[in-house]
Amino acid sequence: MTKVYRSISMRGFIWELLIRIQKHSIGSEKEETEFMLSFLKEAQK
């Protein structure tokens, strides 16, 4: 179950990242870093 959830969230994360790159990084790098860290925390649960 965890593996399935993780792969789905990873795909969602990659899409989110692509969208952010295409919009040319809305917000500062600090916000980007916080987003990544919060995602990684979620993925580890």
Fold blueprint:
Elements: H1 2-22, H2 29-44
Poorly predicted runs of 5 or more residues:
none
Helix vs. strand class: mainly alpha
Taking the sheet with the most strands, its summary is: none
- The total tally of domains equals 1
Number of strands: 0
Shape: flat
Helix percent reads over 70%
Strand content is: under 5%
Number of helices: 2
Describe this structure as you would to a colleague.
With about 45 residues, this protein is mainly α. The protein has one domain. It is built from two helices and no strands. The chain is flat and about 30 Å long.
Short characterization:
With 45 residues, the protein is mainly alpha-helical.
List the keywords.
45 residues, mainly alpha, 82% helix
